[in-house]
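Lab notebook: predicted structure, single chain.

Context: the supervisor wants predicted structures on file for every construct in the current expression panel, including those that have not yet been purified. This is the next one on the list. No modifications to the sequence; it matches the entry in the shared construct table.
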Amino acid sequence: MLNSKHSAPNQFLGYLFQVRYSLWALLKSDENNLLIENLDDVSFEENGTPLELIQLKHHISKQGILTDNSVDVWKTIGIWSSYISEGIISKPLPLFTLVTTNSAQEDSGISLLRQDNSRDSIQALNKMLIAARSSENTSIKTSILKFLALSPVDQELLFNSIILVDSSPNVLDIETEIKKILRLSARPERINHVFERLDGWWLNKVISYLCKSNTSLIYFNEVQHKIVDIAEQLQPESLPIDFLNFEPPIPTNLENDERIFIKQLLAIAINKKRVENAIRDYYRAFEQRSRWAREELLFSNEIEEYENKLKDEWYRFYLALCDDHHADAADENELQTIGQKIFKWVELDADIHIRPNCREPYVIRGSYHLLADKNPPDVWWHPKFAERLVNMLAGRVADNASLE
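Prediction complete. Output recorded below exactly as produced.
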């Protein structure tokens, strides 16, 4: 049932909440290191010793009320009680933090575990013992029994260590909280861009982490370095690089590919692997430039001015090579050699950057392929390619006309 509290949308949002909350918790931490889905939803440890276990309870609506009989409360206490009774957690106990988007009932025992002036863990324990012994809720019976099986001393130690964080920001509100922290590292007008990139990087980080192992730490310093790296890429003299690992589809039959930039490469007889690299550069540059434009990170006419620089540098190199090899009198093999040398310069030596600190090679190489793909092309490798393309297209037009 779609509106069930166990529905797929609620569970999915709960997972996203866990991911974003873990990032927020790490950013707020005092340089501790983090584990996800280890002893708890999120946990911090130092030198192998758990410092804090965090249990997360996310609800789409913040209108829910947390009472001393709530399932969220007793399921959590039951888990923590097991850790103590089974010796999984040793003493002194770490902090046990229950984070919920719901609000605790003000006269409840659980409300006395907030970390504020009203905190009274002994009174909270007494109220919760009364609730436990009088509860008839079968869904929390097992959890209650685990807690009641603890000695009075351990029950008191546990409650001394529990912290309630109720009325927590939900999965959407945490975005705002993270952005408040990011203001310390990024310019105000770039906060949204920094968050989007950090959020995406963090999601991939968590997925990779969960797929490989639940025991390795995610380090505070790694996240801090990533934030600095993103912020630096958004400085006026730089631009962010987002598609370094992007893998576009590579056609299996290059000979039948009609794209002009590929025909250009085949015309100078470079090997298949270099053509495949060129296709990657082409798409990475295309996607990158599109994202820069969508996010309004480019100055007015910046791409046009950059392409003019690329064309100017290419043309100077092209003319010099044609003179060196007497291109007008060269045979086909010599023409291909000229083209190979020009393209090798694009692949390995061209050092023309859209901004001084935006130095990713795929931006340069891919931008050249975008210019080479125009009809007619703005740059070419084989000295006769542009001329042959015009003749080839004219021939196609004539062939089509004869068929009509």
